[in-house]
Amino acid sequence: MSALEAKDITQKLLDSMGLPATVQIDSDEPIFLTIKSDDSALIIGKGGENLRSVQAVINSIYRKNNHEAGYVGIDINGYRMDRIKKAQAVAQELADKARETGEDQHMSPMNAFERRSVHTMLAEDADIITDSEGDDLDRHIVIKKR
């Protein structure tokens, strides 16, 4: 399976839903696609719920034909990248606060994609460690001084 196949699956799904959109490949490995659409609010849904659902369906279809296939990431009109940038900015402020005060800093709950980006960013900071705590919709990052 390839990024081109993932793109085709995504385009067919959006077309079958009657949503005018175009899909482009941003990365082949790992596969990351961007959807461009004037109906982005409908595809994103409240808090990104619809986008996560569309992505889950695409990953299920993609993996059906290749059980060893990796994860297909999807963004729409920059929504996910904006969320990641905001989460990383907050995380950096809280890391600075943890470094200054020595107190653990708890972030607001976020999805796995956003948590992973924060963990990755702060992994480069020799003075800070991060953990994820909580379950389901309450899962969040705790930033601690090393």
How is this structure best summarized?
This protein is an alpha+beta fold and 146 residues long.
How would you describe this structure to a colleague?
With 146 residues, this protein is of the alpha+beta class. It has 2 domains: 3-77, 2-Layer Sandwich (GMP Synthetase, Chain A, domain 3); 81-145, 2-Layer Sandwich (Ribosomal Protein S8, Chain: A, domain 1). The chain contains 5 helices and 6 strands. The strands form 2 sheets. The chain has a 3-stranded mixed sheet. Strand 5 (128-133) and strand 6 form a beta hairpin. It is elongated and about 55 Å long. The mean pLDDT is 91.
Core attributes:
Ribosomal Protein S8, Chain: A, domain 1, GMP Synthetase, Chain A, domain 3, 2 domains, three-stranded antiparallel sheet, elongated, alpha+beta, three-stranded mixed sheet, 146 residues, 5 helices
